[in-house]
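Protocol step 4 of 6: structure prediction from sequence.
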Amino acid sequence: MSPLFDVGAQLGESLTQELVSMLAVPAVCYGKAALVGSLGAMEHGAALLHPALGKPVRAAVGGGKSLMPSNHKVGPLGGSVDLPLGHKDEAWSFDHIDTMTLGVPDAPRADEIVLCIGLSDGTRVHPRVGTGPSPT
């Protein structure tokens, strides 16, 4: 699995730099997901999403006290994966907890892994479930 740690780190750095440049203001949320083709195992996705991927993402967004939410699964060609998002520094910020479903019509092939990194510069649209855990 070690080679996937290294690939994740490289992709985390290059992809996040591109994502950060697309935002008009700094990112406050992040997340990651992997969809593994049918010849792979869920652990291949977990290895790609290893904290080695998170380190360059945290550096690029200027923080990251909170764990980077993640999801990984094995799926068919044209399958989808849910990418969770959470605030980079405040895990209990309910307004920033979100999920997006992603898919690539012709992937993953049986021997491929689709890697997804998500950034957000704000809360989800019209949040209204409270700002954090109840004090009781």
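Step 5 (inspection) to follow. The helical segments are 2-22, 42-48, 51-61.
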